[in-house]
Amino acid sequence: MSLKSQLESLLFVSLKPMALKDLASLTDTKVKEVEAAVQELFLDYQAGDRGLTLIKNNQQYQLTTSAANSVVVQKLLKDETSGELSQPSLEALTIIAYRGPIAKLELDRIRGVNCSLIIRNLLLRGLVEESFDKIKNENFYTITNDFIRFLGLRQLNDLPDYDKLSRAETIDEVLRAAASLLPAASER
Amino acid sequence: MSLKSQLESLLFVSLKPMALKDLASLTDTKVKEVEAAVQELFLDYQAGDRGLTLIKNNQQYQLTTSAANSVVVQKLLKDETSGELSQPSLEALTIIAYRGPIAKLELDRIRGVNCSLIIRNLLLRGLVEESFDKIKNENFYTITNDFIRFLGLRQLNDLPDYDKLSRAETIDEVLRAAASLLPAASER
Amino acid sequence: MMDFITEKFSGPLGLLLSLIESEEMDITEIALAKIADDYVGYIRSAKNINPEELADFLLIAAKLLFIKSKALLPYLYSAEEEEEINDLEHQLRMYREFVAASQRVKEIINTRHWLYLPPFSNAHNRRSQFNLPVFAPPAKINSGLLRERFLEILGGLEKQLAKNKEEKLLEETLETKISIDDQIIIIKQMLVDKIKVNFSRLLAAAKTKTEIIVNFLAVLELAKQQELIFEQSELFSEIHISRLADK
């Protein structure tokens, strides 16, 4: 069978999001080839009149039902819940969605306030994930597939204005940084 | 969305084979139409280079992996349930052993992260079991008798220092602190 | 269902933004200088500010008062300080973009076009056809190891609890020492006793950055109420504070 079909079988059976390298070792292929085949599958699901969607997040893939069929699926399944989201939690989730992986200090800086408690709460609810960066000696935060599923998106890049908001610096900050490199900038 | 795509979504989330009349009532269509659409879906899976297949048994339909990929699927299933436990899984198992029966929310609070995926893995391996408490409307977890015997013990309280460790005040204190700081998000 | 709790604002930048928007102003230095008093007035009267966040609220208050004083005495400020003001404007603009984005995210979630997974079941039909073992313990596990692990977990939790207690203690002291109104009374008392006080002496008594800010705010407040006179013989020299002759 083709690699693409093997990957579809694996994604169908797996209980959790699958990393490229796990898919590669299971199918005994190179990561590069797996990546190309998964991408093909990702586009297949997007193009056709399909009831399934492939989510891509954090370099991991997961098969779910498609957004357009949510109403009929809800009839069959017990209603899923993610509980209440306060405005501060919603803001933190939004910033992590656009800017993740993001360090806690950077999140605090954008919100202008310490976000420890909010992060703890989001971790408990499985909406964000923490990973430790050994080189930077800091924890970084990303959005989980569960939160992406509540958004009904295939990937975070599909969020509105993703390109604009995901950039670490806004244009005027970049311009300012560039200006400060010029000797003339010191004379104001 | 098309009926065919709705049926694909429903067959994907259903844990058991589905009868035509159930599919018809969920999608609010006639059995005849559902039958035609299911047939179309069946042919789609047959024709393409697909990792999924639709099987029919006693007038009931079920989505499964294609037979040609069974070797690679089996490899994944074996990987999921063999080998040593990851550090987080071992931690969760230990807490369930000494503190069981323990609610999911309490386990999450002790570990500081959502433990859904870890619990699934421990359930799959037959190391812990789940019981639903109707009054508290929550799932509780304990280690299985198989696992107790595997450890060479006759019963749970034969675990070393069980009396002392199962009542460790530290854990109660952690749970109290978490409950006051992070009010329960409604469980899923 | 995913519910949203609405609050008046979230954090110091949220408060700042709502004050500016309620005046229908854009984010500029002039706007910030204009709302500085409203902001300080709000945090003085607010009862619902989380003690953990108080320091962050006060930090913004200090920045606003700095901007306000610059608007009054522009020649006293350097390019570097100019930069700091730009930073607050920039930070607030960026925050505003994310608040707007968070509203769009909320709308997306509320359309409930959620993506679903099959519910987990141990007797999953996708697996049952493969005759998997129902019991698959890891080889290297024994009861001694479980005990060891459990003790390690307890140790880790104890450390965490101790750290939390320390932080809480810090917050409590912060909370008790932090009221601007109390500080005003203390300063007035000092002035009654001494007639003249050096500003640096006031600050020397402060133990944390937050306390410095509170002192600063209290002094400014007294100046606003026209109860104090400030004297400084030259730039960057000691500031002497004294009471206005009995009103």
Verbal overview:
The complex is a heterotrimer, with two copies of chain A (188 residues) and one copy of chain C (247 residues). The termini of chain A are far apart. In chain A, the strands form two sheets. Chain A has a three-stranded antiparallel β-sheet with strand order 1-3-2. Chain A has ten helices and seven strands. The model of chain A is unreliable at 182-188 (pLDDT under 50). With 188 residues, chain A is an alpha+beta fold. Helix content of chain A is 51%, strand content 17%. In chain C, a hairpin with a 6-residue loop joins strand 3 and strand 4 (239-243). The longest helix of chain C has 35 residues, at 143-177. Chain C contains nine helices and four strands; from the N terminus they run βαααααααβααββ. Chain C is mainly alpha-helical and 247 residues long. Chain C has a three-stranded antiparallel β-sheet. In chain C, helix 1 (11-22) packs across helix 2 (29-45), helix 2 crosses helix 3 and helix 3 (51-72) crosses helix 9. Chains in contact: A-B, A-C, B-C. Chains A and C meet through strand 3, helix 4, strand 4, helix 5 and helix 6 of A and strand 1, helix 1, helix 3 and helix 4 of C.
